[in-house]
Amino acid sequence: MESRDILALGLGVTPPWRLADQRLDTDRSPHVLEIRLEAERGAMFACPVCGRACKAHDFKDFTWRHLNFFQHHCRITARVPRTDCPEHGVRRAQVPWAREGSGFTLLFEQAAMALVREMPVLAAARYMAITDKRLWRIVEYYVARGLEGIDLSGLRGLAFDETASRRGHNYVTVFIDMGRAERPVVFATPGKGKQTVRAFKAFLRAHGGRPDRVAQVVCDMSPAFLAALAREFPQAAVSVDWFHVVQLFTRAVDEVRKAERRHAPMPAAARWAVLKAADGGRLTHKQAAALAELEAGDFLTAAAWRIKEKLRWVRRAASLQAARWRLTCFLRHAREQVAEEPLLDAVARALDTVEKHRTLILQRWTSTYSNARLEGLNSLFQAARARARGYRNTATFITMIYLIAAPLADLFNSI
Fold it and tell me: What is the per-residue pLDDT for 242?
């Protein structure tokens, strides 16, 4: 087999296309292997609309970046015809080695997508010697193509939460299918609030789902989210995920600590000590000593921390009846602790929020879905931020969330 035949076989060139010429340009750095493809004289080409074999109307040169040939860059050039179809008129024919409108071959794009799944986009772009902007176009195209094939006809359980896309008040709301064991993200949209729930409802309908079949929804205690769910998914049983209940009191404890340190010096390690669990085994020696000092000094921060820790007793309830009783006891006991203590106002507000949404919180004990899925989302978001290092806007951040956590199983097979 001659070298030209080997190159043609590696490129996947099939009739009517043939390898006409190849040349290694050593004047450039890095060196570039130039490959020219031509169609056989008098060949017929498929109409890109109907597939009918048609004569060529005219030709135009196009160039695509291909996978490296050893250490050398590789470019493919071909004279691509426009077909003259009796039904659809003159249209540019499609070539088998590249998609329409792309300056890269399909094999190059496949390699790019494999790299992006394993490393930050900016690093992958540098490795492949292209700009990150061009690489983002490849990623966005195939992710959008993969999203078109998502089937939501079986969605019955839904959870969603917002995450910051960058510093400042810039958020992305992510929706997951609680019935999916892996890659649960099915929709992500900029912003937070009622408009995101409306956007998901439209997306659900466009992908074979029915809003009236969504039986359970897990979310936080945002008034905008809850109002939107009541309007868009009135038949769904809504439960508040426990992660946000704990987060509510964690923030309250931190507010108490900040307010109290203005009046009295605090132990050096108190900041992180009060955010951790006493029995979780995660306290350092200094943090354990700081907690002991807070308790011994009768700090109000210690009282706020004990209230937060009491939530674990509520969570361990084995049944709805036990949880209802424990939550009632917790609220009564906590209110006695914060009464007439202005520095504990943040905890009092947290207790008011729990009281207001206690029915939705207790729904956790009747829901068939675990709140651990939502808690685990945080690591997915952090991974998305890391993979999107160098991302340009919120849209590209959403693209990375889909690439990492959405069910795009046939993404590479579609290339």
Answer: 87
Each residue's pLDDT tens digit, 175-196? 999 988 888 999 999 998 899 9
Alpha-carbon distance 239 to 235, whole Å?
13
Asked if residue 390 has pLDDT above 80, the reply is: no
> If you search the block for the tokens 């999203």, which residue do you land on?
147
Q: Are residues 290 and 331 in the same domain?
A: yes
Beta strands in 253-406 (DSSP E): none
Q: Within a domain: residue 126?
A: no
Residues 344 and 288 in one domain: yes
Per-residue model confidence as pLDDT tens digits over 94-106? 999 999 989 999 9
Half-sphere exposure of 21 (CA within 13 A, CB side): 8
CATH of the domain at 195: 3.30.420.10
3-state secondary structure (DSSP) of residue 200: helix
Q: Are residues 234 and 295 both part of a single domain?
A: no
Please answer whether residues 288 and 273 qualify as being in contact, where contact means their C-beta atoms are separated by less than 8 angstroms.
Answer: yes
Q: Which helix (H) or strand (E) holds 244?
A: helix 242-260
Q: Classify residue 101 as left (phi > 0), alpha (psi -120 to 50) or beta.
A: left
d(CA 51, CA 59): 18
Any domain includes 305: yes
Residues of the chain above pLDDT 90, percent: 58
Question: From the CB of residue 19, how many other CB atoms can be counted at a distance below 10 Å?
Answer: 19
The packing angle between helices 223-232 and 194-206, to 10°, is 40
Report yes or no on 152 lying in a domain.
no
Name the band, by pLDDT with cuts 50, 70 and 90, for residue 64. very high
Is the same domain home to 12 and 35?
A: yes
Whether 216 and 249 map to the same domain: the answer is no
